[in-house]
Amino acid sequence: MSDKPENTAVPAAASNFIEDIINEDIAEGRCSEIVTRFPPEPNGYLHIGHAKALCINFGVKQKYGGKCNLRFDDTNPEKEDTEYMRSIEKDIRWLGFEWDGKFNASDYFDAMYDCAVSLIKAGKAYVCDLSAEEIKRTRGTLTEPGIPSPYRERSVEENLDLFSRMRAGEFDEGARVLRAKIDMASPNINMRDPVIYRIVKAEHPHTGDKWVIYPMYDFAHPIEDAIEGITHSLCSLEFENHRPLYDWVTENCPYRPRPRQIEFARLNLTHTVMSKRFLKRLVDEGVVWGWDDPRLPTLSGMRERGYPPEAIRDFCSRIGVAKADSVVDIALLEHCVREYLNENAVRAMVVTRPLKVVVDNYPEGASETVSVENNPRRPEEGTHEATFSREIYIERDDFSADPPPKYFRLKPGGTVRLKGAYIVEYKSHECDESGEPTVVHVELIEGTRSGEPGSAMKVKGTVHWVNAADSADVTLNMFDYLFEDGDGDYMDRVNPNSLTVLRGKAEKFLEGAEKGERFQFLREGYFVARGGGEFNCIVGLKDGFRP
Fold first, then answer.
1. With contact defined as beta carbons under 8 Å apart, do 443 and 500 qualify?
2. Residue ranges with strand state E in 319-451
3. pLDDT tens across 474-487, in order?
4. What average pLDDT does the segment 448-454 reach?
5. Which of 149, 245, 253, 413 has the least C-beta neighbours within 10 A?
6. Rounded distance between C-alpha atoms, residue 473 and residue 463, angstroms
């Protein structure tokens, strides 16, 4: 483990446009304490895109000594579940952040209802009987104004009566909605009398059956921000066109001071998809193990895969905060993971495709211990012991009976060093009926044990190994990208070979590896223990990222 003190802060970077705006607001006296919020809808698990939003919001809190609230956007009772709420809390803490206040949008349903009533009384909202399809059809286009609802000029008294009866449950779902009365000719379609309340007769996970009408997100969110005293509402770029409506709501509801919405580019990553709707489909249809499948971009999947939270925070810092959407190469994320693990993971020898090697001149029944360094990057972490005996396993690819040019591993007439042990030279090999090697015979060269004077003998190849008589059976889950390159529906591009399971042999101490422990399996990659001798491949050793 690292000897550096734990620090969950996002790594320091040059100021970005969000911080420039905050600095200006502070300088001009518009705010003193900075308060942000992270408002996920509890209808799925958090993914790497949410990690960026978390790092931005909590990073602002940390930089300015302010606060950041966690708020569940539970305005849609048909899609939300307490399971998702629990997973969201777990993921935030795992990533290294702690919220100041925890709230639900539903905490403010009474206040939102009162705001809606005040809008009706001010002639700025009305009950509309048009269906959802009719409202959509009459909204107009980018070049044509919308058509006013025939119910737009209902009296205040009639609107108050109908809205009260909506709340009482007198009408069916879809029969009526409450719309803001703004401007049907606005160039921003979001301002063309948007729906702010609809009827939903479903049990709510937090408020039960108290309500049968629910506010729309664009109406609820600015009210929540205003009530909580949020100074800067940081959200992704798709809400930019909704900002005029956000401002309209805060201007017309009695909460001060008004929060300020700032949009940043969302994270798009190659080789993956981050739509919660589509991720849920993958889970529901059994394409993956569950929301924590290591092939998914969910934070729970990345935790199961073995990604360190420090590496994810580093990745979010490196991609920065931009105003324009772009696509980030997943190789950068893998580079951050690999870079962290290279400094912190214990090394171990594991053979994924075992080939038996017999050391003919080593006494039968004898064994000895050799030292294997835990991490060459951190000599202070010392070594661990591995046992060596007459029969060992090496990787099948580390022997070739008919080697290509510049093959420096074990071969007829060749010598190799066994990692941490001896230099051995080839003597013979045996094959099965198909001609596949089954056993290789070698002899060790006396005086070449690592650390002994004769060990300075030069050989071009070093291979890892495990003791056949003192090894652990391990299961290795090897992952490829879940989606193949191409166009069209993602379901048509699911990679059928995204998971490969290998059965291997490992150093005995790995038998007791606890769930979550991370290792570098020499010359293979980085792995995390799942328990019971099973390991997930976190990332390979080869770095495909080029800055």
1. no
2. 326-328, 346-348, 350-351, 354-359, 367-373, 383-389, 391-395, 415-418, 423-431, 437-444
3. 999 999 999 887 77
4. 80
5. 413
6. 19
Sequence-distant (6+) residues with CB within 8 A of 84 are 42, 43, 44, 45
Amino acid at 464: H
Query: Which H or E run includes 277?
Result: helix 276-284
Contacts of 353 (CB under 8 A, 6+ apart): 395, 396, 397, 502, 504
Let me know if 380 is a catalytic residue: no
Query: Are 216 and 100 a contacting pair, CB within 8 Å?
Result: no
Q: Are 507 and 466 in contact (CB under 8 A)?
A: yes
- Which of 167, 192, 243, 276 is catalytic? The answer is 276
Q: What is the pLDDT of residue 14?
A: 54
Give CA torsion, residues 205, 209, 212, 216, to 10 deg.
Answer: -20
Q: Tell me whether residue 276 is one of the annotated catalytic residues.
A: yes
524 tagged catalytic: no
Main-chain dihedrals φ then ψ at residue 41, nearest 5 degrees: -85, 125
- Reduced to 3 states, what is the DSSP secondary structure of residue 181? coil
Q: Minimal CA–CA distance to 351: which of 468, 431, 436? A: 468
Instruction: Characterize 82-114 residue by residue with b for buried, 16 or more Cβ atoms within 10 angstroms of its Cβ, and e for exposed.
Output: eebbebbbebbeebbbebeeebbbbbbbebbbe
Q: What is the DSSP string of 188-223?
A: SGGGSS-EEEEE--S-BTTTBTS-SEEE-HHHHHHH
Which helix (H) or strand (E) segment is 526 a member of? strand 525-531
Say which residue the tokens 């001798």 belong to: 533
Spot the catalytic one: 179, 266, 303, 530: 266
Q: How far is the CA of 1 from the CAs of 308, 379, 527, in angstroms?
A: 12, 12, 15
pLDDT in tens, 14-48: 568 999 999 999 999 998 899 999 999 999 999 99
Reply yes or no: is the peptide bond before residue 309 cis, omega within 30 of 0.
Answer: no
CB 253 within 8 A of CB 118: yes
Residue type, position 214, single letter: Y
Distances (CA, A) of 108 to 81, 224, 242: 18, 7, 21
In this structure, the dihedral spanned by the alpha carbons of residues 12, 17, 19 and 21, taken in order and rounded to 10 degrees, is 170
DSSP-derived 3-state class of residue 226: helix
Q: At which residue do the structure tokens 């609230």 appear?
A: 69
Bridge-partner residues for 472, per DSSP? Answer: 506
Distance CA 198, CA 215 (A): 7
Query: Tokens at residue 149, please?
Result: 């609802």
Give residue 455's pLDDT: 65
* pTM of the model as a whole: 0.90
